[in-house]
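Q: Can I see a sequence and its folded structure?
A: Here is a first one.
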Amino acid sequence: MSLFFKQASKDKVKNEPPSLSSFVSQISKSGDFKQKKTTNQKTNLSFSISFISTLVDNDIIQQSILPYLLQGEFHTLTDIHQLVPIQCVMTSDITEIEDNLLTGSVLIILEDDNDNVALIPARVEIGRSIDQLEIEYSVDGPKAAFVESLDQNLNLVRTRLPIKELVVEEFIIGTLTKTRTSLVYIDGLTNIENVNTMRERIENIDFDQIQSSSYIEELISDNYNSPFPQLMSTENPVEVAASLGEGKVAVLVNGSPFALLGPTNIFSFFSSFEDYANSWYISTFVRLLRIIGIIFSILATPIYVAVLTYHPEIIPKDVMATLISSRENVPFPPILEALFLELAIELLREAGARLPTKVGQTIGIVGGIVLGTAVVEAGLTSNVLLIFVAIGALAAFTTPIYKISNTARIIRFPFLLVAHLWGLLGINLCIYFVLSHLLQLKSLNRPFLEPIYPPRLRDVKDSIIRATFIKQKLRPGYLQTQQPIRFSPKKKKKTKDIDE
């Protein structure tokens, strides 16, 4: 029995919260932690001021804190609260003290009062200026892009949606990083189920570090094993504002220049904000071109391999002569030359992306020209396949959202494998597998293949095609917003021409 009480007392000591002195001694091991004891000139009251120099603004300390603490008259922490022109926090909670100190607050401890402390915010804002869009560059649209500061990004969104219904909920995620994350939506418009789903998934994140929005995107996706992105990632504040106006939910993360939007569907990845700056028929043509481009990028090389390996009889005679002359010196089967070219394109793409901008562009252009010419002259591949691979690589970049082009890059290789094994039958089986996967895929519990499945003809107006604005009086049906009607179209009065 005595051993039991001894063990219980030890456990009790372990579960006790750390004291203020132990916390200060622990953080004092860091070189950027500064602590100084001084005395008030009027009351001779001794106090200590502590802060982390890399997190605080020295001008705020020198101009708005120290002069009042040294020359003002105070006897208690309550007097400091009334004396300093910055809103202070009085607390004795060690957890609250730690959170505030590690986010840029100044800690004030009176010599005669070690139980309570004062915390004065003095956080320094370090960030880059707002720059132009890089990935989603628009010719006719706005050029401002998100930066790494959450407050600046929220400012960019609020300036485009100056309404009181815009709600911003903040969360702290990551046991190590303590990353500020904001959930943004329009109250009274956004479907409350979508908001609750996103909020619940963010609150249930149990991860040690959140360095960017990509971490959250994977952790809250409906199917994290899918190669298809289920949330849209964008650097364009106008895209976020427009999506919020449609009834979507946005997630912004401190330290990340990208916002997450959901729920979304697959056709959202082929839509660009620039589509709304052009006429509706040009935008519709470009959207269809992007969809066809991705399909071509995935299927062009596998069909080439399948036809040459198993189905040469379907090739027209005139084209067959060209293929025979281009492959007469190639010693490899179609699958090997296709893999060689595809991997070469991927290597050039990765090298160009990782090198400095000017060097990367030069390597990509020169490397592509030199390598393409060399492999054809060496007889390692045919010039016909080189054309297919080059056009397919270009077609993959027609999408405005970079992550869907990465999906096309990945799933092209399984198509190549089944084309080599079973020909066109294998390609059809692979297409059926991808379609069945897309039919089951969801984004925040909403169908990912909408408006194809479930069929919603009204949503086709701003997904596969881009209809005129006057015909888009309803918000997307799959979002099930609380206000489905955008506006009430008015009938135009017919006016006579001047010569009538």
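Q: Show me another, different protein.
A: A second, unrelated one:
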Amino acid sequence: MVAAPALAELREVCQPQAKLRSRNGEHWAGRLYMRRVSLRTTRQLVRTRISPDTLTWTMVVCGVGAGAALLIPGLTGAVLAAVLFQLFLLFDCVDGEVARWKGQNSATGIYVDRLGAYLADAALMTGAGFRVAYDGSAYWASVGLATALGVVLLKASTDLVDVARARRGLSVADDEAARPRSEGVATVRRLASALKIHRLTNGIEASLVLLAAAVADTLTGSPAPTAATLAALAVITWLMVVAHLASILSSSRLR
């Protein structure tokens, strides 16, 4: 078997600082701890024939599986969902690192990666809705589905900016273009950024919040904590959908 590359050499190729320092290029958990884990995992994977696309599909399975795990009653399902989302993040890091090392970057990989992000976050919210509906009213399944739809719209509104610009023959918008021209919208955006409330619409954070709610469910013997958490996630998600749309339309990203 081919010898494993040195970590320093691997880091230079697989973890370019320009990407890690980008405002939207790296999840905070990746910077905080997962990139340390992923580099050691990548060091072993680059010695195999496993393709980056295979790793990306593994990421998708972990993300969708996290939503399905919430259908398991009790604390077990919530713990499993949180673990699967950590694996989702790990493979989200590893697939790109292996692709850079092997020089196997592909449009298919990028497409499946984005598809996985949509599916994973939507599956988690849907799973949370059915989890509460199992012990309470069927109404909560609809809340979960509505939250999932909001999460998809939130991600799509960002991706569609690139689609619109590409169809107009424009380059990818930079950070300057993303700044709202309206001072009121800019103020709201700065407040949301400071509070980091938008992070709760992300499956990684949401899985941990739902885990904490499941612990509270166990202690109280009631699904009320998870139901309240899901309701909060639904409200936050749809507020972010409206705010994000306003931010895009009031910026120069579509010009």
